[in-house]
Design a protein that fits this description.
The chain contains three helices and four strands, in the order βαβββαα.
Length: about 100
């Protein structure tokens, strides 16, 4: 079961998790104007190496994502579905902008 990055990563984007990921499934690359990092659920091998490295405790296994943050499962998935089409991704983010507001 894959891991997902949740709300507390917004505007933080500490990349300690990226450095320990053995399959390089955490993105975006530097320079992209994204509010947070995302884990590709199709590439994640469920090793959990990223979770303890996150200084803001934003990473959870799918079945451990807090109920109030389950929308971030969709956010991570959509990023990888749409990132090749920047217009579609921008439109999706715009329609779902409340996901990217820290509470």
């Amino acid at each position: 079961m894959p891991y997902y990055i949740t709300e507390t990563c917004i505007d933080v984007k500490d990349k300690a998790c990226v450095e320990v990921c053995p399959v390089d499934c955490i993105h975006p690359a530097d320079g992209e104007q994204e509010p947070m990092l995302y884990i590709d659920p199709d590439e994640c091998i469920d090793c959990g190496a990223c979770e303890p490295e996150c200084p803001v405790e934003a990473i959870f296994a799918e079945d451990e994502v807090p109920e109030a943050q389950t929308q971030f499962i969709e956010v991570n998935t959509k990023y990888f579905e749409l990132r090749e089409n920047t217009d579609e991704w921008a439109e999706w983010k715009s329609k779902n902008n409340t996901y990217f507001e820290k509470k």
